[in-house]
Design a protein that fits this description.
Layout: H1 11-47, H2 57-61, H3 69-89, H4 97-100, H5 108-124, H6 130-149, H7 156-177, H8 182-188, H9 195-220
Helix pairs in contact: 1-3, 1-6, 1-7, 3-6, 3-8, 3-9, 5-6, 5-7, 6-7
């Protein structure tokens, strides 16, 4: 017996759901990227020996929303590992950024302007890549170290907000169309069973990013 009812699909309704999903993923990539910034800065300060609990990093971590925790936890170690290796290979580039850019002692305005300007100069040369995005996080870590050493830890949140703005305006769409933040993990981290592969992959990454480093060196010395 045939049913008298027919299930009709409203094309406009389907498209509206797709739009909602698109914007949800877009804003999720911005939130995740902002939280990764907090994680990277925290790690950079620890590696520099200037981290302490009175820096106010809890306010930065509070931006990590529960739905994003799994992705942040997955991506953060990879982002930090590659960024740390990048800093080691270029020991004079991601330090004293305030001096290199001529800012000297940072203010809340010059912190935001420097973070935004350097980030956009990096991605302005050629296409956006994961290499450039990681380099931007290394810059954020370098500026954070400058601010803490200048006795201005309150500017750490300014750095995070400036990077979030770059993500929202310049990077989130690229990240979304290239598999989201998890794609960084699948591309650059090997399984725990093959640590040799991981070392080779990291070495290859540093080789690929070298031209970007030269661009950054020119940018921050302008």
């Amino acid at each position: 017996m045939e049913s008298d009812f027919e299930f009709e699909i409203d094309v406009n309704e389907v498209e509206s759901f797709e739009v909602v999903d698109y914007f949800y993923e877009y804003h999720a990539n911005v939130r995740i990227g902002s939280s990764l910034c907090a994680q990277y800065i925290r790690n950079r300060l620890k590696r520099s020996g200037i981290f302490h609990r009175k820096l106010g990093l809890k306010r930065m971590r509070s931006s990590t929303l529960l739905p994003d925790l799994a992705v942040v936890s997955e991506v953060s170690p990879v982002l930090i590992a590659i960024g740390t290796e990048l800093e080691k290979v270029n020991p004079n580039l991601y330090v004293r950024i305030g001096r290199q850019t001529g800012c000297g002692s940072f203010s809340d305005q010059t912190v935001a302007v420097t973070m935004t300007h350097v980030s956009r100069e990096i991605i302005r040369h050629g296409e956006i890549t994961w290499s450039k995005i990681i380099s931007i996080y290394a810059v954020a870590g370098g500026i954070a170290v400058d601010c803490v050493r200048q006795g201005k830890p309150e500017y750490l949140l300014v750095i995070q907000k400036a990077l979030a703005s770059v993500l929202e305006q310049d990077l989130a769409i690229w990240i979304q169309t290239n598999g989201g933040w998890s794609a960084l993990v699948s591309r650059y981290r090997s399984s725990t069973k093959t640590p040799e592969w991981n070392t080779k992959k990291l070495a290859l990454f540093v080789a690929v990013i070298t031209p970007i480093v030269f661009i950054l060196a020119i940018v921050i010395r302008l």
